[in-house]
TrEMBL record:
It is found in: Cell membrane; Membrane. It is a multi-pass membrane protein. It comes from Pseudosulfitobacter pseudonitzschiae. This is SURF1-like protein. Keywords: Cell membrane, Membrane, Transmembrane, Transmembrane helix. Belongs to the SURF1 family. PROSITE patterns: SURF1. Its main location: membrane.
Amino acid sequence: MGRILFLISIGLGGAAVLISLGVWQVQRLSWKQAVLADITTRIAAAPVELPSQADPVAMKYLPVAVTGTFDDQVIYVLVSQKQIGAGYRVISPMVTDAGRRVLIDRGFVRVDERDAVTTPTGAASVTGNLHWPEEIDSFTPQPDLNANIWFARDLPAMSKTLNTEPLLIIARETSLPDGPVTPLPVDTAGIPNNHLQYAITWFSLALIWVGMTLVFALRGSRRRPERPNL
């Protein structure tokens, strides 16, 4: 009897821990959904003029509208798009009407269409969102400057190479003619939200734990006592 009570106590204790972890993930899911909803609202807000002083925290995803002319320099950042395949983000410097040099992420071009990318001529307007990508880590290769292929949007390095402010606008809409470059606007698709899967995992483990506890308890209750030696 003592063995069965011990198994039940272990089973209930373990299940309680696993269920509490599942509940915590449900709470995290609610929090993350609120964060994503707030980001979505900020991304889609009405654009404003480019701020004179940009705060990477307070102004992340801030919608802005700029006009100016594009420089003939360009950086290609290697990326991949679902159902399309490999390609590049096209990063070009723009000289705004106010005389500022900023980076414009013009969008995506397929690998086999890179040679068709040209420098926009004349005045252009861009509506997009400020962004400070965090894509660099210790495993990121150095850019292949000879082939002009970068493997992440390293904002400080790109701004230094193209002699611009460390300010990046991800284009949502442009006045540029249709061409091989397609805008790749900011969205929340790349922000992970796996809390529902985690919650299901913890609740499933709790159910399995309870089931195993019941199996062991039933086996223990059915075990026959050993016969005494005569």
